[in-house]
Amino acid sequence: MEDRIPVLLDTDPGSDIDDALAIAYLCKQPRCELVGITTVSGDTPKRAAIAEIVCRAYGREDVPIVAGARETFAYGVGQPNVPHYDPVAHLPHRSDYAPDQAVDYLRSTIRSRPGEIVLLSIGPFTNVALLLAIDPEIPSLLRSFVSMAGNFFQGYGNEWNCAVDPMATCAVAKRRAEQTWVGLDVTTKCTMTPDEVQARFATPPHDVILPMAKKWFEGASHITFHDPLAAALVFRPDLCTYQGGEVSVPYGQDELKHAGHTVLSNGEGPHQVAATVDRDAFFSEYFGVVGNG
Prior knowledge:
Elements: E1 5-11, H1 18-28, E2 32-39, H2 44-57, E3 65-67, H3 102-112, E4 118-121, H4 126-134, H5 138-141, E5 144-148, H6 160-164, H7 166-174, E6 179-182, H8 184-187, E7 191-192, H9 194-200, H10 210-217, E8 223-224, H11 226-235, E9 240-248, E10 263-266, E11 271-277, H12 279-290
Parallel strand pairs: 1-2, 1-4, 2-3, 4-5, 5-6, 6-11
Antiparallel strand pairs: 7-8, 9-10, 9-11
Helix pairs in contact: 1-2, 1-11, 1-12, 3-4, 4-7
């Protein structure tokens, strides 16, 4: 087997179901050393509880989980509600998570293992932007930096993670550090219907996903595997093709109308953006790792 890859995951489970799906994948991926999980945006202790519940279901009670930033840089609490917590609140989990602890944890963990860790960001960029502001050397201490963020080619509009905290998104892009952006251009190709989800996640431990998925389907017709795709690319970058260049986040008088809008300037630059995805290969990878239910 190839060498294991240490991963630090920054995530916002509880608003969209795909964060939980990504955590399940990372827990089961034999090449993943899941170093820790940090949560971001709104009630981060509840988000930490969800991460713990999923990790417990998949036999990973050992994974450190730390609650992070509640508020955005300038717009208050970007995601105040955590609707997926109530359906799983009865399952065992800690109730003593303290918010706003993630940045120190991320910094000390990355600095303890220079050049080893992949930072995987699948939520708003608040924790990451604060980390980079406090310690600008962090990008040079990472193995790589992968984020589910942005919209570059297809005109879907602003991507949610970028729009929740647009100033943080801008701050991360401006660091000009090497980064892989996985945007709506590819993630929206990877969807699953309620019937498919029921069939795939009907048996333990996968059934921990179902109560949250049921809540999600109250307002949605399908699940999009945004975050699991970003997670899978840490181990299988060949699932996508990429375009290189520099990502920027225009910021000016129209920031409220175009909050967090991402633009890729093709050519030389520190960033690569996923451009196409092999959907069938992705789902084969995902369910080959977590199991078919």
